[in-house]
Give the backbone structure.
Amino acid sequence: MESKDTNKAGRFRLFKGKSHTTSVSVHNEAEVPLGESSGLRFIAGFIRRDKIALTGAIGIGIFFVYGLIQGIIEMAADYTHNLALSYVLLPSNPFQFNFARSLGAPTLANFPVGIFGYDETGRSILSRILYAIPKDALASVLIVVSAIVIGMFLGISAGYLGGWADEILMRVTDAFLAFPLIVFAIALSLTLGNGYVVVLVALTIIWWPTYARFFRAQALTLKSRGYVEAARLSGLSPFSIIVRHIFPNAIDPIVAIATLDFGNVILTYSTLAFLGIGVQVGQPELGSMAASGLQYVPRVWWYALFPSIVIMAIVVCYSLLGDRIQDMVGGRLSY
């Protein structure tokens, strides 16, 4: 019965540790590292079968595919000094003033330029939203990936090595966790300067401690497993054990956590932009657009509403996918 439950849980693994030939025998089947598995294919199959997860995945896919294409076009435009190139996928130039349409209401008369209305200078709100999306997509990827890498290195090192290394690294982690996230990000941005790159650095600095704590907990659990003990007795160095056994088995649950965190990063980044942190004057950003539109509410309701809806839609898609994957990995869903 125990073997059957263990095999059932094993299909949720995305990665696996590699066994090392040794004279030490491990009798506890639950402690044997997983062999070759089809975890990634299983996750993909689960998403295809689950309507909620599929809805979130489709929304995220559209967000990232468009963000990638538009981002590449914007970089090419900067490289060639041809600003018009960055507007080829947009309904109109997001920087061109047209005061005759100042605060114009949503309309189908100039489709699709005017379907979200116009801002105080007559610029298309839809065009400015589409121009801002690549920054949000890039911010979420860079911050989450950087936080995972930093947290993985520090957390696994602290958990596996223990002793003074664990004590020092965890006290540093606790010091970062003691500060409110938004307040700390604002303080770092004001100290280092106001800009997009500075906000990315600030959010990365405050985002890694959670992953460090998680990886440490995984390392503490895994280092006592039989296959890790066998690898240690066979003469493998601590670095090899961490890379070949601890890390592959600790990374599995990160998939669900990171999926949810992408949405949290976008929400936090938009909140900072709403407060005017990290926004360059004149550059479109979803959070700053929502903030600018608030002064015209309720008469001009569309100015703040549509950027806010886009932020909410992106975060909801991440939540739908991340929650379902987390339920599956945790065994609360069976497929």
Summary: The chain is about 65% helix and 0% strand. Residues 132 and 283 are 8 Å apart (CA to CA). The chain has a mean pLDDT of 79.
